[in-house]
Amino acid sequence: MTLSEEDYIKAIYHLGKGENTTVTTNAIAKGMDTKPSSVTDMVKKLSDKGLVNYKKYQGVTLTALGENSALSIVRKHRLWEVFLVDKLNFSWDEVHEVAEQLEHIKSEKMIDHLDAYLGFPKIDPHGDPIPSKDGEFKKSIKKLLNEASMGVEGICVGVKDSSVAFLKFLDKNKIALGDTVTVIDKEEFDGSLHIKINGRNMHISNQIASNLYLQISE
Amino acid sequence: MTLSEEDYIKAIYHLGKGENTTVTTNAIAKGMDTKPSSVTDMVKKLSDKGLVNYKKYQGVTLTALGENSALSIVRKHRLWEVFLVDKLNFSWDEVHEVAEQLEHIKSEKMIDHLDAYLGFPKIDPHGDPIPSKDGEFKKSIKKLLNEASMGVEGICVGVKDSSVAFLKFLDKNKIALGDTVTVIDKEEFDGSLHIKINGRNMHISNQIASNLYLQISE
DNA sequence: AATAATATTTAGGCAAATCTAAAAATATGT
DNA sequence: ACATATTTTTAGATTTGCCTAAATATTATT
């Protein structure tokens, strides 16, 4: 697969939300910041190669082959993100662009050794699951904290708003990625939440809760 | 710079042996396994971009800009080689192909962090020197063991012949990359050498010595 | 120095991936 | 259901990097 083909396969996978739902030409064009006519061209090629199912005007889905390819790319992307954060001290919001490049490196041996070297991580720095070598992985159960049900426990894996003000708030209140959070109670009146974070009780506003992502442990 | 441009710049650098000697069109074509006419095309483009000096029929040299680019690519290539060997347990002879891909990844921050993470290595797994961030580096003093003068001390950094038989020989005799070797004496008759390796005296044939590379410590 | 051999460049073309503009198919609104 | 709007495809052009074949320049030989 060429670099460009890989980009399309990955985009189709993500637009299909990991399910294998049909993705339209325009959606791909928007998602990839290109023109619909370019998408049509490429989709024909991918169809010829057996990576997508395509009928004119009907949109595309990934074939089994295409889905495997997508998972392999996603796996590489997320493993590299873990590497950048865990080993090279990048912060979680700096890694995407570089991982976009690294995901195209072709060497199965390297990626398997990298996986082992990182300790076979199950989720990436944004809380998204990392497919195993054979394409298996747990569906991501990632929610904004304010959407989590009462009693739910999860790991804080990301922020939606990465403004300096918000990050400072987290720092001051000793909330960090990786912390375990349990939803104790929700106030109906203002949507604020009582949570337990790393064993400590806390009361946070809905606004805060709506900017924190939780990885729910099933 | 595109991927292809980077490949040309690197090839011109290596063919010029790191000195800035003139490199011919045919030499580049051979070195890159492509056609002379393709080289002419690309060399014109590189000249327009100020990366090489080029006059028709006269061959090319790198400009200061071109040389900086080349050193940056070589730096990345060799740092990744160290990473693959030191961290991912690749052997020295497996890394080249993957490093050829990794060297094109664009992120100055990443490569600087990688450098630090690896402990600012000075030589790669083949004994070649790694340019520093600002393009400085020690000329490689890398010699075949049988060409080293008496009394010379160096580090064993590579093999010329990587046949299984030879590697087995090294293994059986406990000679490994990284070992410190001193040339004690040379027999004129058969060219065999008396060496000290990791403190232990040894007598090896010229044939063995002519397949082992030494990185001479200045 | 003239000719032969070699090296290099030019000219013209091809494939990949993109684009614009126009045509065709599908979807939407009343 | 019909006209209109939107989506998708086609047709034709462009750029990058490469190719072959032919032309031109340089180098080597006698």
From TrEMBL, chains A, B:
Q: Describe the location of the HTH dtxR-type domain by residue ranges.
A: 1-63
**Localization terms from the record:** Cytoplasm
From the record, what ranges are coiled-coil?
none
Under the GO molecular function aspect, what terms does this record hold? Answer: DNA binding; DNA-binding transcription factor activity; protein dimerization activity; transition metal ion binding
Q: What is its main location?
A: cytoplasm
Q: Does the keyword Ribonucleoprotein apply?
A: no
Mind telling me which GO cellular component terms the entry cites?
Answer: cytoplasm
Q: Which UniProt keywords apply?
A: Activator, Cytoplasm, DNA-binding, Manganese, Repressor, Transcription, Transcription regulation
Similarity section: Belongs to the DtxR/MntR family.
**Protein purpose:** In the presence of manganese, represses expression of mntH and mntS. Up-regulates expression of mntP.
| Assembly description | Homodimer.
- Its recorded name reads Transcriptional regulator MntR
Question: Which organism's genome codes for this protein?
Answer: Kriegella aquimaris
